[in-house]
């Protein structure tokens, strides 16, 4: 049975790898760019699962599935590919300030819920925070916005390098027999007669000729909108820009043996080895049309917030800045996973907005289930 996946960011690559473990599937992945170029290449890879406020239903289920799968997936990929994937197992530390979600009660409740679900979450007071993470400024708070009043530590959440992960998924999938075609653009998607319901898509017309399949999986992020338009079923996904900084301090902040990802006020400070940190990201919506010129002031305010949390970052050298567009579904919750309306063999795995890296393993599982449960006979 032939499966074609369109899009090779972290979502498309994760689906390709997960499907490559299923016997009897012939898988092809196409992308007009090399892997991990769009949203994936811009992501910081902070996997906020246990520390997220999602506690039930699909939103929590997917987070839990992904966090669990990453623990086996990373060693599995490293063994298969011989590549090292930067994977920070030291957890996520969320700094709380005066206005943190109606104060502490929300977090105390979350700690209880997580314990009942078998996950660990700790609330730290100022003394503990200062003792364990001396790089965090617990005194001043004058730099900007509100003062830090405490922290929540999630030892089981992770941070990963999204590009390294995606490239390892591609290599492992290739070793398992998946075909990748980069620099291929989809031109058209002819469908069966309009009278038949649901419709069936037999093949794609691409810049490299026709590609036929039993299943098509649209995992193209922002590219999913023009693709679904060709099938007359537009899934409206809009861009939201994010900018980030690579900063070099020259030595690890605080305790070199304890370097969790630190987050607060929607700003992440991510250790990436040595004395280097990623800091981000902005959230910038298009003002008119889909054009979003990167706003320098917003990026500067993210840098200032990071410095307010960790004053040593003030002396850090900015090695590079980068930005990327995140795919946000219009008028419906993210992500969009399931059948394209009106089609029996086109699946959507797109519109993950700011949680693509976090939800990639669970998305891959969901797509695999849909294909298997519909009967491998097509």
Describe what this molecule looks like in 3D.
- By secondary structure, this protein is an alpha+beta fold.
- The protein has two domains: 1-88 and 159-236 and 330-378, 3-Layer(bba) Sandwich (FAD/NAD(P)-binding domain); 92-155 and 238-326, D-Amino Acid Oxidase, subunit A, domain 2 (D-Amino Acid Oxidase, Chain A, domain 2).
- 30% of the residues lie in helices and 27% in strands.
- It is built from nine helices and 20 strands.
- The strands form four sheets. It has an eight-stranded mixed sheet with strand order 6-7-5-15-16-17-14-18, sandwiched between helices. Strands 9-2-1-13-20-19 form a six-stranded mixed sheet, with helices on both faces. Strands 3-8-4 form a three-stranded antiparallel sheet.
- Helix 1 (10-20) runs parallel beside helix 6 (162-175) and helix 3 packs across helix 6.
- The protein is elongated.
- The model has no long low-confidence stretch (mean pLDDT 93).
Which of globular, elongated, flat, extended, rod-shaped describes the shape?
A: elongated
Radius of gyration: 22 Å
Please indicate the count of domains.
Answer: 2
Which CATH architecture of the largest domain? Answer: 3-Layer(bba) Sandwich
CATH homologous superfamily annotation of the largest domain: FAD/NAD(P)-binding domain
Query: Strand tally, please?
Result: 20
Structural class: alpha+beta
CATH fold title of the largest domain? FAD/NAD(P)-binding domain
Q: Which features does this protein show?
A:
single chain; 8-stranded mixed β-sheet; 9 helices; FAD-dependent oxidoreductase; 2 domains; 378 residues; oxidoreductase; 20 strands; FAD-dep_OxRdtase; 27% strand; elongated; D-Amino Acid Oxidase, Chain A, domain 2; 6-stranded mixed β-sheet; FAD/NAD(P)-binding domain; alpha+beta; oxidoreductase activity
